[in-house]
Write a structure and sequence with these properties.
The chain is of the alpha/beta class. Helices cover 36% and strands 17% of the residues. The chain contains 15 helices and 14 strands. The strands form three sheets. The chain has a six-stranded parallel β-sheet, sandwiched between helices. A five-stranded parallel β-sheet has the order 2-1-3-4-5. Helix 4 packs parallel to helix 5 (129-140).
Length: 379
């Protein structure tokens, strides 16, 4: 029986050696996928950098595509469906990673801009796998939260959801967690444009970890220049990796599309694509999960709560797990290495990989840390 031929992006982690007993596996850089290199492949394992459409897939033997990512706008679904090419993504694989990014962002903002989370309202646009986790996290650190998700509101009823206008007119911080929809009633392409920014509450902050094209670059620069926006946190960019240098200089926290790049999120994504491939081709890897995820450099956090507020303790724990300004400084200092920074991203473990030893704990702090995902030992 002929082995399945698989072309895999060489940057998909924890994959090498997994499929080789059952398939012929060829690893390529994401930008080396073309009609010639994939012509005789049965399956493609890709990331967002590989556009899977007619120009790539026509006249090839590809019958299966899996992307080790939460997004799937790089896959031409209509074309694949018309050619009976099965396709899969990895929904929710990096949702806890993006939530960790948001937690680090919010506490960093509170520290540097000297405000208390309980005095701010967070507007979440898109309340799926990621947005739902951000909702719980923001409330656990004391923020008020408003939610906007038209598809969910239509399905579940409007209770609990508000309009986009209410989000942008009333919230102090707005965070985007939507898919990139180029058209239709739920179009998100340039959802935030000049018209949207003009309606925003003066002094608002914008966080975008969804897709760069959801925010119109020129409009964002104008809003920052005019002071309509107090500032922005941007992880995803139009035309990345060739990002707008003027915009980059104006961003409070800027990172190279790595919000979902925790080692845990990567392991989840790889697990999901391997399992979907195993199901499709009847390979005995339906329960696969990577076993070699590196441990954090310092997995134990010891804090004496005496003299510290609940928020100070929570902030120490979050920023110990992810000191987000390190990523910001790297991109600001060398934007030309955007792809290199992504491809060689250091190990970042999520909250659940850390144990907090909390001395003299105050009421409520243990519960908050555990709700965030930390393991807590009180003494």
């Amino acid at each position: 029986m002929k082995k399945v031929t698989i072309i895999a992006d060489e940057k998909i982690p924890f994959l090498r050696g997994v499929l080789e007993p059952f398939a012929e596996v060829i690893y390529l850089p994401g930008d080396s996928f073309n009609q010639v290199s994939i012509k005789h492949a049965d399956a493609l394992l890709v990331r967002t950098r590989t556009r899977c459409d007619e120009s790539l897939l026509e006249d090839t033997s590809v019958q299966f595509i899996a992307s080790a990512t939460i997004g799937f706008d790089h896959i031409d679904m209509k074309y694949c469906d018309s050619k009976k090419i099965a396709w899969y993504n990895a929904p929710g694989c990096n949702s806890a990673s993006v939530n960790q990014y948001l937690a680090a962002t919010l506490v960093e903002l509170a520290l540097q801009k000297d405000f208390r989370p309980e005095d701010k309202t967070l507007g979440i646009v898109g309340v799926g796998n990621v947005g739902s986790k951000v909702h719980r996290m923001a409330e656990s650190i004391g923020m008020k939260v408003r939610l906007n998700d038209p598809p969910r509101a239509r399905t579940e009823g409007s209770g609990g959801f508000v309009s986009l206008d209410e989000i942008i007119e009333t919230c102090d911080i707005v965070t985007l967690h939507v898919p990139l929809n180029m058209s239709g009633g739920d179009k998100t392409y340039h959802l935030f444009d000049d018209k949207t920014f003009r309606k925003m509450k003066p002094g608002c902050w914008l966080i975008n970890t969804s897709r760069g094209e959801v925010v119109e670059t020129g409009a964002l620069k104008s809003a920052l220049t005019s002071g309509k926006l107090n500032g922005a946190v941007i992880d995803v960019w139009h035309n990345e990796p060739f990002i707008d240098p003027e915009l980059l200089r104006r961003i409070f926290i800027s990172t190279p599309h790595i919000a979902g790049y925790s080692a845990d999120g990567k392991a989840n994504g790889t697990s999901q694509v391997v399992r979907s491939l195993a199901e499709h081709f009847d390979i005995p890897l339906r329960d696969f999960y990577p076993q070699s995820i590196p441990a954090p450099e310092v997995p134990e956090i010891i804090i004496d709560h005496s003299g510290l507020s609940r928020f100070q303790v929570i902030t120490q724990c979050i920023l110990h797990s992810y000191p987000i300004m390190k990523d910001h400084n790297l991109l600001q200092n060398d934007p030309g290495s955007f792809e290199l920074q992504r491809g060689n991203y250091p190990v970042r473990r999520e909250f659940r990989a850390y144990t907090v030893k909390l001395l003299n704990p105050l009421v409520g702090t243990i519960e908050t840390l555990e709700s965030l995902g930390f393991n807590v030992l009180a003494g």
